[in-house]
Amino acid sequence: MLLERSHNGRMRIVSYNIYNGGEGRADPLAEVILAQRPDVVALVEADDPATTQRIARRLKMDFIEAPGRKHTSALLSRFPISETINHGLNQSFLEAMVLDDGGVEWPIGVLHLPAGATEADETVRLSEIAVVLKILQAYRDGGRPHLLCGDFNSNAPYQRIEPQRCKIKTRQAWLKNGSNLPRRVIQTVVAAGYLDTYHSLHDEQSQMVGTFDTQNPGQRVDYIFAFGLSKTAVKSAWIEQDRLAKYASDHFPIGAEI
To answer: CA-to-CA distance for 208 and 227, rounded, in angstroms?
Structure first.
């Protein structure tokens, strides 16, 4: 059953791949995040602990880090973080609980799937998303609302992709794939019952607003998925593409208010 929020409180969450740890860019990254007025921030490629700590101090948030085999995911929150699990995986996968102002405990997953725009790359991601969905299955079986966000490095079947707007490596993969980009991972997540919060409020068939990369934003590979919430529970959703965000990282941040 899809649920509304059980109280009048709202939560603003931002997911942001800060690129290779963000070292030397902590202040511009913090400025970009502060402009979103978030309650919770999911950071991907938070590989430099000093940078993550500096951003958290600027935001006046508690934080938890979860190193994977290649990268680190982190969760920053002005809400109390009550429980965390580092699931590792190939890149990184963090599961955490936050207690919002209304007393609702939210399970939140911060995920980073392997990069690459070929169908072979997508097959690797499919094997990892199957593990992630199995980890979260107890929440789904119990009908418990939760969030899954991060850099999925995959495109959704409902997105209109214009290859000429993508980086050269992606254009080459587009041709190798037979004029397409992989979309099976996101289809799998949606089929499992997750709501793409950004897509729920925006028609990506008619207007594509990308998150990657910031110089050639022809793809949206960053997502905030919600399970157990209706579309009406998503009050706003956005991608921040201001000038500072264009240079602070190679991804634009994505946000949602629920």
So the answer is: 24
